[in-house]
Amino acid sequence: MEYKNEKPAILMLKDGRYFKGIGFGATKIVTGELVFTTITGAGYNETLTDPSYQGQIVIMTHPLVGNYGVPSWEKDEYGLIKYFESESIKVSGFVVNECCKHPHHYKSVKNLDQFLTEEDIPGIEWMDTRAITKILREEGVQVGLLAVFNPGKKPNIEELREMVKEAEDPNLRKLAGEVSVKKIKKYSPVNPRGRVVILDLGVKYSIIRNLLKRNIEVILVPYDYTYEQIMKYSPNGVIISNGPGDPKLYYNAIEVSTRLMEDDIPTFGICLGNQIIGLAAGGTSYKLKYGHRGGNKTVINPETRRCYITSQNHGYCVKDFEAGGFIEFLKNIDDDSNEGIIHERKPIFAVQFHPEASPGPLDSIYLFDKFIELMEI
Predict the structure, then answer these.
(1) pLDDT higher than 50, residue 1
(2) How many CB atoms lie under 10 A from the CB of residue 135?
(3) 280: which residues sit within 8 A by CB, 6+ positions away?
(4) Which residue of 101, 121, 270, 281 sits 20 to 30 Å from the alpha carbon of 70, by its own alpha carbon?
(5) Closest of 150, 105, 144, 132 to residue 7, by C-alpha
(6) Per residue in 307-346, pLDDT tens?
(7) How many CA atoms lie within 13 A of 224 on its CB side?
(8) Pairing relation of β-strands 326-332 and 338-343?
C-alpha cells in the first residue's frame, strides 16, 4: 500500500538491478559510488559531513538511523562546527533501513529528513541494507544511482537504467579539490606552543580540534599548495590529511610529501595521507574490494601484538613502501592490509585509520601526542 505523501524512490546498481523504497530528504536523482559503513546508529551526523565521503552514496548497515536527531550548527571555542566534521553534508545520497522521524535528544533541533532536505541530499529508507551490503561485499563497491520522486510520480525504470549506464566513477575526479579549503584558514589557541600546517585534502574538524586542544596553532592550506608555499609558514610539523578519492591522482601532495621526507620535516599522515606518504616513499596503491568503513575496526602492531580499536573510512590501501625507508607498524587484523607506516630514521609516520575518532580504552588518540613529540617543541 502506498500512502498519499510518500515519495517513491529507487536505488539502482550499475547493471540495472534495483531496490524500491521510500524517499526522504531532497527530491532528485544522483549518481555516485555505492559504499557501506558499519558505523553505529550514533555516528550518522559525523558520517554525513565527513569530506572523505564526497561522491559516494552511503549505505548504513545499522538498522535504525536518526534516533538522536540532528544538532545545531553551533561553533566551539575555536570557531569550529561543534557536532559535525565539516560545514555541509558531503555524501551524495543516503541509504538506510529505517529513518527515524521522531528523534529524542536534548541537543536535537531537527530530524534526519529535514536535515537532508535543507542540504539538498536525497535519502531512501525501507531498504534491505543487509542484502545490498552482501552484494557489495561479494561484487565490490560500484557506481550506482539513487532517485527520489515527488509523491504520486511513478519511476521510469528504463530511463534510470540508461542514466546509471552513463554514470561516471567519481574516483576519476580529484575529489579532494571539491572539499578542500579554497583559501588559508588559521586557528590559534591562546599562547600556542607550536604550529602545524595541514595540507587539506578533506580534513575532518576533529583532527583540527585535537591539535588545538594540545595548544598547537593550525594553518589549513588548499590541497594543491606547494612545498615552498607551506614552508613559508615555518611549521614545526605538517599533516597530510584524510580525504576522498584515488591517491594516485594527487601528484602535488605526493611531491610535497617527498620534499618533507628529504628535509626531515616532522610529518603525520592520516587515512588518505597514509597512502600519499606511502606513494611518495616509492610504494603503490590499490583499491580494496569493498573498503574499510565503520567503527570498531581492529588493527594490530605486528611486533608488540598490541591491538587498537579504530574508526575507518577508506577504499584504497598502500603497499611496497619499504624501499623508501618505511616499515609497517600497524596492520588490519581482518585482511592484513596496511594500517600504518613509520620511517626508520626520520620523524615521519602515518596511519590508515582515524585516530581522532577512536573509541574506548584501546584507542589511538595518543598518536597526536606522538606527532607533537616528534616536533620537539
Answers:
(1) no
(2) 17
(3) 254, 255, 257, 258, 261, 324
(4) 270
(5) 150
(6) 999 999 999 999 999 999 999 999 999 999 999 999 999 9
(7) 9
(8) antiparallel
- The alpha carbon dihedral of 68, 74, 75, 81 has a sign of positive
Nearest by Cα to 201 from 241, 146, 148? 241
Query: Could you tell me the domains of the chain?
Result: 7-172 (3.50.30.20), 176-375 (3.40.50.880)
Q: Which amino acid is at 267?
A: T
Give me the active site residues, please.
271, 354, 356
Here the cell at position 326 is 618505511
pLDDT (tens digit per residue) in 192-223 = 999 999 999 999 999 999 999 999 999 999 99
Per the confidence metrics, is the pTM higher than 0.90? yes
The candidate with the shortest Cα–Cα distance to 187, out of 151, 158, 216, 149, is 216
Maximum C-alpha span of the chain: 67
Closest CA to 33 of 48, 62, 50, 54: 54
| pLDDT tens-digit series, residues 18-61 | 999 999 999 999 999 999 999 988 899 999 999 999 999 999 99
